[in-house]
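Now read the record:
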Amino acid sequence: SGHVQLPPPQNVTLVSKDFDMILTWTPGEGSPPNVTYTVRYESQERMDKWIKVPHCKNIHRTSCNLTCVFPNLFVKVRARVKAVSGRFQSPWVESQFKEYHLDVELAPPVLNVNVKENVIHVNASFPLATCVESLLWMYDLNLWKAGSTDKKQYEGNFRKDTVTINTTALRGNYCLSARSSFQSIDFKHSKFSQPVCVLLNHKG
């Protein structure tokens, strides 16, 4: 055809990070500076039908968030990307298949700690995309006295649940930390969040 082809994008990967599913890539070696990228995806429900992703057409960045693009979170999908510059374009490069439900990587929740007299109310907020809020996200909460390794565990709280802890018998500096959890085939967990510490029943 005599067409000069653009270098194809490299390291095309469907990554799950912090509850999202994102296609990432790096520019092909020797790409011109003004290159743009276009992304499509395919689901195992309908193989050989590559579906357009309107918010990732002719973009300059090297990633595309596909979390709420996939109509079914329980089916394997893959994506592909090509480079475009003027009338030249690269070949498509495909990612591997991933399934949101099985492959999702969790971020730690953010704890909101409300200290009242004789009680602490704790709830967790999650950086979730709207389309995945309905899944059964849980969190596990740990409470311990600062400096101690003995942790009291409150496991399997639903995402919207508030954990109420009676602090009548607690005195001194106490810390709380939580991790997200999610059951697909087995339980997945995030890392624990940075501890939030509070001073309880301080007479002074």
Summary: Residues 100-103 form the longest helix (4 residues).
